[in-house]
Design goal:
Layout lengths: L4 H15 L4 H21 L1 H29 L1 H24 L17 H22 L6 H24 L5 H24 L5 H23 L11 H18 L5 H31 L11
Length: 301
């Protein structure tokens, strides 16, 4: 089976990194060569580079609007506390996008897509919301359940729309697969910690939710760094069911006061289903990694 040049390049880098025993110098070479290839990809595809620049400007404007809105509603002091973490997350997010421009290929044809596309734009907006929540956490700020619920609902909407748009416009890509997984991880991580911080999520449940992502991540890193074997990104069917159950459970925990009577009845049954699926999801994910690329939300019918 023919491999893309990016795949061969990554394997070559990983083998070199392993031979040098993961020394600081080897890591420096790893990142320098990766960045050089990213720049070459961007320069060789001007329309894709312009698309990245436009999305970066959009994200920067929205980030500025978030900071202004936070200052007006929560105060300037609150904004100063979250500012360093928020700037770091936004810069990292756009840098990560530039770094992975070479993966903006159609999953059907393998050809480069001319732009980032509407589906990936929605995914990055979900990442922006997660960045704001993470910045509040790193800034030592409490996040009201109402604010967390609003961002979470926006995240659910973009999660539904990005897959739908990608399928309708035939713009499913490996870039979208990785972006979708990263945005979901960051949003789930931030919400889990916020719910723990607010005292509405038991610690043991929060640990299981985090392990759902950390166990497959550890397996992927082991495959990359020890065996120099890249794995497929995405979610299994078990992972999708687990994600859906976790979303519903989060909605129950974040529900406003008038709905507490109804959500209290749903809490225990929904928690039981969520825990079972969260245990099954990483097992299915690791099994899928061993047998090749897994289907993602964008590629599922």
């Amino acid at each position: 089976m023919q491999q893309h040049p990016e795949h061969t390049f990554v394997v070559d880098l990983l083998i070199t990194l392993r031979k040098d025993r993961f020394s600081p110098r080897a890591w420096g070479t790893f990142f320098q060569r990766s960045w050089r290839v990213s720049c070459q990809t961007a320069n060789a595809n001007p329309s894709l580079k312009r698309s990245w620049q436009k999305l970066t400007c959009l994200v920067a404007l929205l980030a500025l609007a978030i900071l202004i809105g936070n200052s007006l509603l929560a105060g300037v002091a609150d904004t100063f506390h979250l500012l360093p973490g928020f700037v770091f997350c936004v810069v990292w997010q756009q840098g990560d996008l530039f770094w992975h421009l070479g993966l903006n290929r159609s999953v059907q044809s393998g050809e480069f897509l001319p732009g980032i596309g509407a589906a990936n734009t929605l995914t990055w907006l979900r990442g922006l919301g997660a960045s704001y929540l993470l910045a509040r956490l790193t800034g030592g700020l409490a996040t009201p359940s109402g604010l967390a619920l609003a961002i979470f609902l926006c995240g659910i909407a973009t999660d539904i729309l990005d897959g739908y748009i990608a399928r309708r416009t035939a713009t499913q890509s490996k870039l979208g697969q990785i972006a979708d997984a990263e945005a979901d991880f960051c949003l789930s991580l931030s919400l889990t910690i916020i719910l723990l911080q607010n005292g509405v999520l038991p610690l043991w449940v929060g640990l299981i939710m985090l392990l759902r992502f950390l166990i497959p991540l550890a397996a992927a890193l082991l495959s990359y760094l020890v065996f120099a074997h890249p794995v497929g990104f995405g979610s299994t069917l078990w992972g999708k069911y687990a994600g859906l159950a976790q979303c519903l459970y989060f909605l129950v925990l974040l529900a406003p006061a008038p709905l507490l009577g109804m959500t209290h009845l749903l809490n225990i049954p929904l928690l039981s289903i969520t825990i079972c699926l969260l245990v099954a999801a990483p097992i299915a994910q690791i099994a899928a990694m061993r047998h090749g690329p897994v289907k993602t939300e964008e590629s599922l019918p």
